[in-house]
Amino acid sequence: MIRLIVGVLILVVLAVMFAMNGGNSTPLNLFGYRLESVPVIAVAVAGFVLGVLYSFILYFLRFLDRRRRASLKDRDRSVRGREQALQDKEKRLETLAEGLQDVSQPADGASEREGEASADRSRRRRSR
Description:
Blueprint: H1 2-21, E1 25-30, E2 33-39, H2 40-104, H3 110-127
């Protein structure tokens, strides 16, 4: 609602400027190029339009920068989450490996008997 009111006010101000300065003209020197009898209202409107365009460009660049920063933050959070998950999995794997080492070290020479049994099974498979 406020934008609408501001827009209408700006249009009213421009209409009043056109009505009051329609006949006035002035010379204009634009970077060494001299223009004679340019309407004053044209100079005012051109300045207004250039100011709006400049503001729009600044706004758009700020918007892109904020979006890029948000994207980098999201990516950083994602990487940190993946790193944490990887560390958790590594810890679980180490815990499992320690458990397997405890189980794979039987007492009283049982490993020798298992080794002989597996060698016998290998020979049987080869002979088939």
